[in-house]
Amino acid sequence: MAIQTPESSNASKLDNTASSATFNKPNSTYNHSSQNTLIARLAKRSIFRNTRRTLLTVLLISCSLAAILFTDAFVRGMVETMVKISTQTFLGEGQIHRFGFREANDIDLYIEDTTALYQQLNATKAIQAFAPRVLTGAMTSSSENVASAIVYGVDAAKEAKVSKLKLAVTQGDYLSGIDGEIIIGEQLADLLEISLGDRVVITVSEANGGVLSQALFRVSGLFSFNERSMDIGMAFINLSQGQQLLNITGVHEVALRLQHLQQAADNTLPFWQTLNNDHIETLSWQELVPQLSSMLAMTKYSTLIVSIIMYVLVCLGLINTMFMSIFERQTEFGILLAIGTRSKQLFYQIMLEGFFIGLLSVTVGLLMAFVLCYWGSIVGIDYSELEMSGLTLNEPIYLILDASSFAIMGIATLVVTLIASVYPAFHAARLQPSFAMRKTL
Amino acid sequence: MTTQVDITDVTNKVRASQNTVIETTHLSREFGQGDTLVKALTDANITIERGEFTAIIGPSGSGKSTLLQLIGGLDNPSSGDVFLDKKNINRMTGTELSDFRRDHIGFIFQAYNLIPVLSARENIEYIMLLQGVPTVERDKRVDKLMHAVGLEGLGDRRPAELSGGQQQRVAVARAMVSKPSIILADEPTANLDSKTGADLLDMMKELNTKQNMTFVFSTHDPKIMERAKRIISLVDGCIVDDERRS
Asked: What's the rounded Cα separation, in Å, for the pair A338 and A437?
């Protein structure tokens, strides 16, 4: 006979609760919403069961994501800085030449009808400014020494809008348009053992005949681009005098400054077609210096490589965490399975835990990356005096935040965490209750 | 010295009964192979009627837990079959078996085995959530069960905040909430003090009596043995005695 205790008498109150103990018919229409809520609740609480471990995992993933995005922003910034240095120093974002000039360096191949060309360039909205130039290899002589250099004849006003020649003048004055003035690189000046105000004789071969032509110049300024090949091998005179020296009326080269740097890469823009005809060719900086273009393309791959390495580490870290968590909770999974949780539901629970960890990590990682990259975009990272592929990074690299990168990398991280969760989830779902609960039942 | 009693004839006679809720036929479970082969259970034939309060007893390692696991579909037998309400659970797919356990079997474990991240109330309603029981019905059943097991006011506490006895009451409520026809209890009083254990057993006994719920215990506890209507004794994986009490 059962002893009547307060608890046992309470049991009689179940009369209406658990009716006769017959087999229940399973509910044919499962309330999926309540099941999903239950699985989500379990997953959410489970990830904070071992807060320290979860936070460390979140830190690992978010730091990796932040590092990837920082690298991406840095590479973007570096690419843009290098392109700017390359194009805005002197090259221009595009150049126009007579066909064959670039290959042969033949001073006879100059653009004759400059009036029509200038009108066309002025009418092209995509072109912000242009600078006509004549150029030739020359012998520069001082009273002390002789050196070879490329002498450019430039339109002082127009050149200042396209290149940094005016800004590169370190001593004396920039060209003013007066005949007889010349600005030369600091290192060339050292070689010729001259300084401001000293005389220099330029000797060139005239176009269309090769007759030697000489002119006397007085050094009005010295420049430095922080680029040895330019500082030791270039000299600038006024365009009109350059044309006189070469005995031509046209120009060899027209450097272009575009409204936007990106227009140089978009060869579908109409002006690239209209500025190319039977006589002249117009090329973007990518075509003018393909080695730089290739190097930058390779630099972009480095982001991909860093991303892959980071994601592999993230995967391994997360799998390790998930497995540690699963082994700790093996008994609990056994119970869940024993009391009727389907393997599929357990699988979803673990996947959801991975998703929550991923979501948390992505949120933290994006925030960290934003703060870091924003700081880098304002302050810049100083790489001055570092030479890379023949370019001296003479200005800081400002990081470039790219919203699409943040979105893509964020989603990719979430996908990676889900992929990393599949194996642990599959392992948990395949547990046999009796094995999982071996220590208890 | 123990001798195995051949109870096959008795079992066969009972098998035809409409009241049979558990039936095992030639049930065996072996672990390992070759030299390390261990026969945890050998040729167990048991028939349990609806509403029986049965205790499976035996020394440690005699196969009690293995038998309970096999009856509950938590493990696969090496040979033989388990029929629950005439359904062979060994022929079920994983999902069918999960659903069957959820709807027809209640488990009570020695170590309580509640879900630590869920509150007492959530632990009890877990199975009903899996079953898709509507919220109103769910709340009603949980309230009544919590009252019945004497846990009113403790619903929001996590298992770690409850005493052993209170945790086991939650486990009992969880086992019963889906109105299962069978409750399998593995040494449910082993971790409880004698007073709490006795109270809990009385509560289960009353449920058994009033609701005709079938209880199968594996136990060493004399308190369970004295309340059981039937005692099945196991030694070295073999059933050696099957005693029915009036």
From this structure: 9
pLDDT tens per residue across span A356-395: 999 999 999 999 999 999 999 999 888 766 666 556 666 7
**pTM (predicted TM-score):** 0.73
- Name the DSSP letter for residue B160: G
Q: In this structure, are residues B213 and A21 in contact, taking their beta carbons and an 8 Å threshold? A: yes
**Residue B23 C-alpha, separation from nearest chain A C-alpha, in angstroms:** 15
B8-244 folds as Rossmann fold (3.40.50)
| Cβ contact A162:A254 at 8 Å | no
Q: Where do the DSSP E strands lie in A296-401?
A: 386-388, 391-393
B136: exposed, middle or buried (C-beta count within 10 Å: 0-12, 13-18, 19+)? exposed
Q: Does B6 touch chain A (CB under 8 A)?
A: no
Which of B232, B244, B243 is CA-nearest to residue B58? Answer: B232
What does the DSSP 8-state code read for residue A24? P
Q: Do B203 and A5 touch (CB under 8 A)?
A: yes
Residues 72-131 of B with CB under 8 A from A: 72, 74-76, 85, 94-95, 98-99, 101-104, 107, 109-111, 113, 115-118, 122, 126-127, 129-131
**Count of Cβ atoms closer than 10 Å to residue A368 Cβ:** 18
What's the Rg (C-alpha) of chain A?
36
Decide the pairing of beta strands B79-84 and B20-31. Answer: antiparallel
Q: How far apart are CA A422 and CA A350, in angstroms?
A: 8
If we measure between CA atoms, which residue out of A349, A328, A325 comes closest to residue A337?
A349
Find where tokens 């049930």 sit: B27
**β strands within A77-126, DSSP E:** 94-98
Q: Count CA atoms closer than 13 A to A252's CA, side-chain side.
A: 28
Q: Which of A160-169, A201-210, A284-293 has the lowest mean pLDDT?
A: A284-293
